Automatic annotation (TrEMBL), chains A, B:
Gene: leuB
Sites where the protein binds Mg(2+): D221, D245, D249
Record's protein name: 3-isopropylmalate dehydrogenase
Domain Isopropylmalate dehydrogenase-like per the UniProt entry, residue ranges: 4-347
InterPro entries: IsoCit/isopropylmalate_DH_CS, IsoPropMal-DH-like_dom, Isopropylmalate_DH
Main enzyme class: oxidoreductase
Amino acid sequence: MKLNIAILPGDGIGPEVTNQAVKALKAIASEFNHNFKFTTADVGAVAIDKHNDALPEETLELCKKSDAILFGAIGDPKYDNNPSAKVRPEQGLLKLRKELGLYANIRPVKAYKTLLDKSPLKKHIIQGTDISIYRELTGGIYFGEKQTSKDGDYASDLCSYSREEIERIAHLAFVAAEHRNHKVTLVDKANVLETSRLWRRVVKEVAEQYPDVTLDFLFVDNAAMQMILNPKQFDVILTENMFGDIISDEASVIGGSIGLLASASVGDKYAMFEPIHGSYPQAANKGIANPIASILSAAMLLSHFELHNEAELIRLAVEKSLKLNITTPDINSVVNTVTTSNVGDFVEDFI
Amino acid sequence: MKLNIAILPGDGIGPEVTNQAVKALKAIASEFNHNFKFTTADVGAVAIDKHNDALPEETLELCKKSDAILFGAIGDPKYDNNPSAKVRPEQGLLKLRKELGLYANIRPVKAYKTLLDKSPLKKHIIQGTDISIYRELTGGIYFGEKQTSKDGDYASDLCSYSREEIERIAHLAFVAAEHRNHKVTLVDKANVLETSRLWRRVVKEVAEQYPDVTLDFLFVDNAAMQMILNPKQFDVILTENMFGDIISDEASVIGGSIGLLASASVGDKYAMFEPIHGSYPQAANKGIANPIASILSAAMLLSHFELHNEAELIRLAVEKSLKLNITTPDINSVVNTVTTSNVGDFVEDFI
Ligand SMILES: CC(C)[C@H](C(=O)O)[C@@H](O)C(=O)O
Ligand SMILES: CC(C)[C@H](C(=O)O)[C@@H](O)C(=O)O
């Protein structure tokens, strides 16, 4: 297969981890005789520094003519702590999601056998957890109208949703549930929010088309609790943008490290693959960043193009590295530990 | 001391747990020679059933002329699953908060020594945790303008904040931190939300008046993760309404049961005390509801009126009941377990 893949390494640890994922993809290409072409472009704080734009036009163009995008991470404290900055790295990511119509962010959460002891949660709580989170990604309070009064003493963000925005991701979630454990849990705050009540209404209707899938409802505050008390109760979680951001980061503790969690952001035309972790600038260039989330994002990319054997091989390589303890310090308590590129090399060699 | 206390038991397990708290308060009154007068009124689903109003005028009037309010819980599934219901139990609670100006919800989270093993989290993670969450309670997306289009296919909720709303609770949080471990963590989503950027700006300014308190910032997604990875890093958490709802329910897993967490909702004129748990209708009238959160809410009520010895005695009684395993099934694994009122009786006798 021929694939044009745009590589957007971004900030902080983004470039290091993305490099390892590219190594894995190259090894796959040579092993399975595929033709993968990689083109790199700037996004985030590096793009602001170079082009004064978190998502330069060339980057967006490249993404639009590529078959898939592999994204690293963005964010830099020099912008976080400057609330009046007009240009911010996050705008690059948010604009990319919006412009490419990547409305569904899919985040698998699994408890790896070899890592059961690394989680802050007790083993019997997490063992066997297998969740797929469907987070709406181009609507809600992220993209609603934002206002600040002239004197700067009043601000507002609008959270809005339309039936179509909810239907399209709901269908993806139900189809996924049909291939999994036949359960969808809608996480919302329908006892307070009008948008949540719309979600409940629309999702109930969509559910009727999937009679073999059970639909459950959970308020987001309760969901934040249940995720820790009993994560095994979940199969597919469906939720809006902001709640999905919070709940999926929280769920990352189940796996033992956020450095393991991959995600796919898909729309009707484009697809982007990215770790759910951030840019962790404090960890950049120290060789301590865990590349597994990025490598597994590459596996999700392959699955997206139905290259299931290829994706499976990457997953196997990752599991092997975990078993052999060829892992970065976040999940490795041995002192003389392995670097980011050591993990990448192992995966490459294994393939 | 003479105190007029309004009792609003509400729905589900609300009445049972509130009864136990009242028993504790009566025991305190007789032990310390106080004059506590209790008057009960309807709120929530019961109030809708009786008066077609989740917060009847008489109830609000009673609250306004009382010195403090002890609140049970509200909510009923028959309203949750009817998204088009015009009258909902939650409106009772939300209106009460707004009308009484209860802008700060204070939620202490502690890992009780005797319950360390009950938490889904590992002992070394939670041991020593002592957090006080300051959640803004009368602003944000809870109270912003809500809209639904005529055809019902579009909905919106407005999240807004003003400088004053942020300042007043920020001062409470910093004063609390001065009496605790001198650290405030502001939880927000300043990389996306305009309101969060306003929070950061205002809280930074307030912080200058408290030079011996350190101010930290954490994005809400990261906070949801850090709460589980390392809860001991927190002292006072300050946050807006919706994030506070999610983060504090999540934090409840640290104590081993949400049935232990009390809260105080205070404003410039009124103060209300309530468990953070909900109405759990499935558990109602079975004698299995944990009354400790409500009993500890009564202790917070006493502290509010500077009755510190009295409050301390209640806390001692609770700790004793935990030590002796006189506890409801949520935190008691022995089969022949204790009922809601058994716990209340023990606390009463102890006092
Ligand atoms: C960087 C930030 C804007 C982003 C988000 O909130 O969506 C990130 O946290 C994520 O989850 O991908
Ligand atoms: C019942 C509900 C409206 C309420 C809230 O979200 O504030 C509850 O969850 C709470 O935290 O007190």
